[in-house]
Specification:
The chain is an alpha+beta fold. It has helices at residues 17-32, 35-42, 44-54, 64-81, 91-102, 105-126, 133-222, 224-251, 273-282, 302-322, 364-375; strands at 286-290, 328-338, 341-350, 379-384, 390-397. It has two domains: 17-174, no CATH class; 272-398, 2-Layer Sandwich (Heat Shock Protein 90). The protein has eleven helices and five strands. A five-stranded mixed beta sheet has the order 1-2-3-5-4, with helices on one face. It is rod-shaped.
Amino acid sequence: MTAPNPTLVRRPPRLGPRGRRWFDALLVAALLLPLLPLGFSLGLVAVGISLIEVGPLLWRRRHAVAVFWAVTAAHAMQVVLIDEPTLGQAAWPVAVYSVARRAPAPHGWAALAVSAVAALTASWDWSLGSPDPFLTLLSNALLLGAVAATGWALGTLGRTREAYVDALVERSERVEREAAQQVALAAADERARIAREMHDVVAHGLSVIVVQADGARYAARTDPDVAARTLETVASTGREALTEMRRMLGLLRAEDGDGSAPALRPQPGLADLDALVAEARTAGVTVDADLPDPAEVGDVPDGVALTAYRVVQEALTNVRKHAGPDVVVRVAVAVARQGRTRVVELRVEDDGRGAAAADDGHGLGLLGMRERVSVHGGTVEAGPRPGGGFAVSARIPA
């Protein structure tokens, strides 16, 4: 068996839970690392506020909105207590990115609006003691706003991309499931077709062999020559059935054991009904056949011709199995025209025991007839005849 096809769209590589925890811890450590050499010069208040601003980033993935508001509160405290920037300012764009990346879009827009207000407030606070307050206010506001907007844009882009990739992966998996279902349905249809073919070949061949073998057994006592000829017919029928089975089983393999392609031959059709009738007569059944002229069946589609052949074959098989001795069978096949379409009409009827016979196992014969004919949009009727016997009739559009 071949391996299933890989997923059409693969997710990009992502960190696992442990990797994400380590990444956030290293990020917080990298933002706080400059405090070690600068801690004494910045003062205790600046160092404490920086720790409060950066520390919440450890939980930014699972609680992005809460972390953002915690960082916002710490920055508001910084504006009140200190009139200059601190190293903890770097936590702000990370918090904005986390909200835009992890939370729904409205939270991201709210974070962007708060960032604009915070940038103006911090810039105004830092410009109070500047020689050029307006220039300081403008430059700081633009810088802080641009940094916050960049974090928001990157987070929004990441969230949109993740949703897009998830949609592609989900669609790819759905397509794979649907393709697998189609393959399973096709395999089931193929198994049903093979079962019908095997039933037709085996049932037909064995029914002829059984009838001929019974005749040879009785003839062996009185007429050995008849028995010998009958056994030749049994052997010939058995060889034909085996050849047909080998042909069908060979189609299931890509190659035979020696690497050569399986031997193929044309499927039987309407032109082969003569041989089918002759075989039934050889088996001791009296058959009155009305078959179409070969010129009329030349342009009948191969599938329709094969279906008609199999229906007649199955009907004759059922006659030999169920109709009883000294039965007379009438086989009528014609290619008729109805308007612009042609129809293959066939009828096989006998005057034997008909419905009084025991049912054939699971009824695969009649079921196979109906399935074959329904594929071509035709109809099958099968049942007892008035006055005795059994009849099978079918109409197959050609």
